[in-house]
Amino acid sequence: MSAILTREITALLAQDLPESIVFTLVVFSFLCLRFDFKKIAVIAVLQSATNLVRLLPVAFGVHTVVLVISLAIYTHLVTKARLSRVFLAVFGAFVICCLAEMIYSVPLMKITGRTYEEAFANPMLRELYSIPYQLVLLAVALVKNYYNYRRGKISA
């Protein structure tokens, strides 16, 4: 039990928190919100804690639905943005994540000789395998935020 707890705490700090930060940045940029790092940190910490849903014995994909809903609710509660717009932004971020994973995951698994199960079981491998889509999400957030500033679309 202690090994599982240690593994999940490591995964929480190494993958879930950075992942939650970049997802929140993308959502803020899609909503044309100023990057308020206090708000982003609150949402990211809440979302990281919600990532523990991965430990539950639920059908494959259910955790993704829970994470979409939780990120939308946390963002709405913290920013007061319209919930329908928040859901669209969150859904868009998850679509970008899925597309990026579809493009790089199979070649990466072949190059490294690892299976998905091996990568998921090891928190450090899970983080390393998630870095490409986190970089894609970060790039999308920064480019969209730059575009928002250039167009004067950033709101409080």
Give me the secondary-structure topology.
Elements: H1 2-30, H2 37-50, H3 62-79, H4 83-112, H5 116-121, H6 123-151
Helix pairs in contact: 1-2, 1-4, 1-6, 2-3, 3-4, 4-6
> Which ranges are low-confidence, i.e. pLDDT below 50, for 5 or more consecutive residues?
none
Number of helices: 6
Structural class: mainly alpha
What is the domain total for the residues?
A: 1
- Number of DSSP E strands: 0
Main sheet specs: none
Strand content: under 5%
Integer-rounded radius of gyration: 16 Å
> SSE order in H/E notation?
HHHHHH
Distance between the termini: 45 Å
Helix content: over 70%
Mean pLDDT: 88
Shape: globular
Main features:
single chain; 156 residues; mainly alpha; globular
In short:
With 156 residues, the chain is mainly alpha-helical. It has helices spanning 2-30, 37-50, 62-79, 83-112, 116-121, 123-151.
Explain the overall architecture.
The protein has one domain (about 1-150). By secondary structure, it is mostly helical. The chain has helices at about 1-30, 35-50, 60-80, 85-110, 115-120, 125-150. Helix 1 (about 1-30) packs across helix 2. The mean pLDDT is about 90. The protein is about 80% helix and about 0% strand. The chain contains 6 helices and no strands.
